[in-house]
Design brief:
- The protein is mainly β.
- It has a domain of 86 residues: Thrombin, subunit H (Beta Barrel).
- The protein contains one helix and 25 strands.
Length: 333
């Protein structure tokens, strides 16, 4: 067990950047009430464009000028998740409220194909360039695998729910840097899948001091860590190889007392790893603020790696039958 001292903010405060024109990127809202809209956003592989929607048309912005380049796909149905094709910025996968996925070509302004495999709205999309697949997740707790050369469905997998939990709520998916392992995140669990077989290797279920629902989770840039946020304000860092808990960051380490005691209480809604610093990540809070976190300079990293016993990390074989990994509680940061 490593000693985790109090303090979880970044040594350099992030700066808000805008182009000289003063433009802001604003979504087309349409007629959908804001509280019913599903916000979604995606950055192109060359960081030149950002695609975004929030109940209305999908907007494509220039990242340098913030100008709207084009809008498309007016609802209904509304877009609920967006993803750029990893090799062609003109091809976009758009998950919809009606459970379909539209493969859209921006250059010719048309839908190439509609994919049907889910029963409820699409909540996640992730491309693997090495495996030539698109994995989709939905509010039906299903994962679908699509071949990107033919767009045919290769497989459908139901995520295994903990006892007493219903298969509902958003499911998110993200590939690791090698694009062969898939991180699957649901409010009831974090799981790692072998993407080539779509077999679950590890699963972690909220427990102990981390018993609240999971709001979001994400790989670090080198895919060695998983950063996870919880609806009670806790943040946890796991080893990506086996989902062993490295450390826990309590809400008091990065939020004010007023935010913690507000009604409703503020909590981390989304997590994103820094693209180059594997130990740094950001959390977007439910009050609209963003906090960037990194370990203390004296620590250098989050907690300690898992012990190796008989050649197997944490003494557990990577079997799909594993339901959880013991979460060793550490001193809160």
């Amino acid at each position: 067990m490593s000693r985790i001292q109090v303090g979880a903010t970044a040594s350099v405060v992030p700066q808000h950047w805008q182009p000289n024109s003063g433009l802001v990127m604003a979504n087309d809202i349409g007629e959908t009430p804001p509280e019913e809209s599903v916000p979604c956003i995606a950055l192109s592989k060359n960081d030149s464009y950002v695609m975004s929607a929030c109940g209305g048309k999908v907007s494509l912005f220039n990242m340098m000028t913030f100008k709207v380049m084009t809008t498309f796909m007016p609802p209904p149905p509304a877009s609920t998740f967006l993803a750029f094709h990893p090799q062609d910025n003109n091809i976009i996968a758009i998950g919809m409220e009606d459970s379909t996925i539209h493969i859209y070509n921006v250059r010719v302004d048309e839908v190439k194909i509609r994919l049907k495999g889910h029963q409820k709205r699409i909540t996640g999309l992730a491309f693997s360039n090495s495996l030539h697949i698109l994995v989709s997740s939905g509010a039906d707790a299903q994962l679908c695998v699509w071949a990107t050369d033919s767009w045919e469905k290769k497989k459908s997998v139901a995520i295994q729910m903990p006892a007493g939990k219903t298969p509902s709520g958003d499911t998110r998916v993200q590939f690791n840097s090698d694009q062969n392992r898939l991180l699957v995140v649901h409010e009831t669990q974090i799981a790692i899948y072998d993407a080539s077989k779509m077999e679950r290797i590890y699963q972690w279920i909220p427990q102990g001091t981390l018993s609240a629902a999971i709001s979001h989770a994400s790989y670090s840039c080198n895919s060695q860590l998983v950063f996870a946020a919880f609806t009670d304000g806790n943040v946890a860092i796991f080893d990506a190889d086996n989902l062993r808990l490295r450390c826990r960051i309590a809400s008091s380490a990065y939020m004010s007392t007023a935010a913690i005691n507000s009604n409703p209480p503020v909590y981390p809604f989304v997590v994103a790893g820094h693209p180059q610093e594997p130990n740094q990540f950001a959390v977007g809070l439910s009050d609209g603020s963003v906090k960037v976190m990194e370990p203390l300079e004296s620590d250098g990293k989050w907690g300690t790696p898992a012990p190796v016993e008989n050649g197997v990390a944490n003494g557990r074989a990577p079997a799909s039958s594993a339901t959880s990994n013991p979460a060793t509680d550490q001193n809160q940061r």
